[in-house]
Amino acid sequence: MTIAVIDYGMGNLHSVAKALEHVTHENVVVTRDPRRIHGATRLVLPGQGAIRDCMGELERSEVKGLVLELLSKAEKPLLGICVGQQMLLDDSEENGGVACLGFMPGRVRRFPVDMHDAHGNRLKVPHMGWNQVGQHQPHALWEGIDDGERFYFVHSYYVDVSDDATLFGTTDYGTTQAHVAIGRGPVFATQFHPEKSSAAGLRLLENFVNWTP
């Protein structure tokens, strides 16, 4: 049994791997080797930084075709994290517009520049720090995690899915409701960083390790 953290040069690869090792006795590898990825029982697609850079590195590392193949077959559990979530959608407004993987219908949008909280205080972009996540519908990865639990975020762009059936979690930032947990079939993805989200994040990773879609 092996969990492959897909290495295309972007994302907190080793932080994710260490968090996974904390919750499982399964073998966790950081790799871009197609044979090891194909042979893995579970996959993690991380991402960090600008979407153009992530999609570009996915292409340059020759991993994009492999990821598209894995998504089309939908045979193994896959967890997307941060930009790894955003890449699953059709496109992103970032960097003047970037085509993504098109696995789930929807768009990645930028937070408005001038946002305020309920008390009139100006909110910063990027959205950085802890925020509550509302569970839009049940999912195996929510097991043992309270609705409204807090997770750790760092992002200036947020997912807006167009199919409600793919939406599993939201968070409010100002007047914006960001779609921060999405899924379809054996794929689940979060905008927040479970590897940085203390006990709740580790529980989500443990649920992923034990998930049988």
From TrEMBL:
The organism's place on the tree of life at top rank: Bacteria
Signal peptide: none
Pathway assigned in UniProt: Amino-acid biosynthesis; L-histidine biosynthesis; L-histidine from 5-phospho-alpha-D-ribose 1-diphosphate: step 5/9
Subcellular location as annotated: Cytoplasm
InterPro entries named in the record: Class_I_gatase-like, GATASE, Imidazole-glycPsynth_HisH
Active site annotation, chain numbering: C82 (nucleophile), H193, E195
GO aspect biological process, one term: L-histidine biosynthetic process
Recorded catalytic activity of this chain's protein: L-glutamine + H2O = L-glutamate + NH4(+); 5-[(5-phospho-1-deoxy-D-ribulos-1-ylimino)methylamino]-1-(5-phospho-beta-D-ribosyl)imidazole-4-carboxamide + L-glutamine = D-erythro-1-(imidazol-4-yl)glycerol 3-phosphate + 5-amino-1-(5-phospho-beta-D-ribosyl)imidazole-4-carboxamide + L-glutamate + H(+)
Major localization listed first in the record, in broad terms: cytoplasm
Name of one Pfam family that matches: GATase
SUPFAM superfamilies the record matches: Class I glutamine amidotransferase-like (SSF52317)
PROSITE patterns on file: GATASE_TYPE_1
Domain Glutamine amidotransferase: 5-209
Gene Ontology molecular function: glutaminase activity; imidazoleglycerol-phosphate synthase activity; lyase activity
EC number(s) per entry: 4.3.2.10, 3.5.1.2
Keywords annotated in UniProt: Amino-acid biosynthesis, Cytoplasm, Glutamine amidotransferase, Histidine biosynthesis, Hydrolase, Lyase
One GO term describing the cellular component: cytoplasm
Function summary: IGPS catalyzes the conversion of PRFAR and glutamine to IGP, AICAR and glutamate. The HisH subunit catalyzes the hydrolysis of glutamine to glutamate and ammonia as part of the synthesis of IGP and AICAR. The resulting ammonia molecule is channeled to the active site of HisF.
Subunit field text: Heterodimer of HisH and HisF.
Protein name: Imidazole glycerol phosphate synthase subunit HisH
Species of provenance: Halomonas salipaludis
